[in-house]
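We both want to read discrete structure tokens more fluently, so let's practise on a single case. Would you supply a protein for us yourself, any chain you care to pick? Would you write everything just below, so we can both look at the same thing?
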Amino acid sequence: MKVLMVTPFPEDPSIPHGGVEAAASRLVSAMWTCFGLEYDLLVYETRTNEPTYERWSHVNILPLRPVTIGRRTSAGAMRRLVSRLERSGSYDVIHVQGPASFVSRSPRQLVTIHGISERDSLYAESRISQRLRAQLVRARETVGRRRARNVVAISRYVRSVIPASSGQQSWQIPNPVDPVFFLNVRQPRTQKIVLFVGRLVEIKNVLGLLEAFEVAWACDAELRLRIVGEGVDTSYGRLCFERAGQLPAGVVTFVGECDVTELSDEMSQASLLVLFSRQENAPMVIAEAHATGLPVVASQVGGVAEMVTTINGELVESGDEAALAAAIGRVAGWDLSPDRANAIRDSAAQYRAESVAKATYVAYQEICKNTRAAGERKRD
């Protein structure tokens, strides 16, 4: 079986940038490990002008540069490029990670919908254009979703928001977690560490988190907040840094970007992960935290309610800082015994890379079978 994947992709396997890069790279590795499946990759977003992928031995990066308009990849040009690659006859399946607008009506093409882009766009930092952009994205992606013959939704939430069109085949397959998180050994706690992992952007409501944390810290001075992720040098990041400066030195630490091993280590020493987002789909970081046996306190938005239960954390209403402060205080006091950590880890079993690989391979086989059947009907 030969597969073309159209996706963002990390140059360094240990430092994916964003959920789609992480999901795609972990899936490719799992498919290689479980089935010996090699991929050709058409990479449509890069962080550098001349990316190199020397550390990837089991993928082939196509030397093609997608057409861009301004800083964004042209959906129409990408769709034509993908169709041209399909017509070469080299691929049994073409798997698009992300934009449905890249997909044609071909029965060979599969799109994984990672999020509801038009909802995310409402929280762009440029308030003047965010609603117009959301409308444009909704129009473009809605057409693409209806056109797609094969769709993977990463959560029940995504599946509920995107109604299936006539003749469309769909699967619900979550994103895979790097195995390093499941191998993590929890460390004895010396402090009550609250961990945030993500970009410092408005949609993550880091300012609201900081205000809630200050209330929680006033009730329990043992609490410490560690903020892992990029964006401290942005205008919103600087606001977060200034807000954190109102607390005593050492109470809030901006760690910066971490690789996978460093992030696993951070989680092994924390008491809980907190995510106070205004909009989410199925955050990879929640699955990673649960894989390490770490409970999560998160706002009840998007697909988060599917992931966080009374076994592995607490949910609060988005924007309710008083509720978040109280939940931080309660969950920071949990006794993370081996049994409880294992129960949290068990709740993340569906995100194991081998499970996701098996489900994806079944989808690929079904697409190949349907494509052959369609070809035979056409010949008849």
